[in-house]
Amino acid sequence: MTTLAGFPRLFGLAVRPCVRGIAPARPCEPSRPAFPLWRSSVAGYRTRYRLPWFQEPPTYRERVVERDPEREKLASDVVGRINELVATDATGRLFAVVYLGGMRHKVTDGDVVTVSGHWPPRTGDRLALEKVLLVGGRDFTLVGRPILNRELVSVDATVVQKTLSHTITRFRFRQRKQFRRLNFYRIHRTMIRIDSVRINGDVDEKREVEGLDRVY
Question: Does the reported pTM lie above 0.70?
Answer without folding.
Answer: no
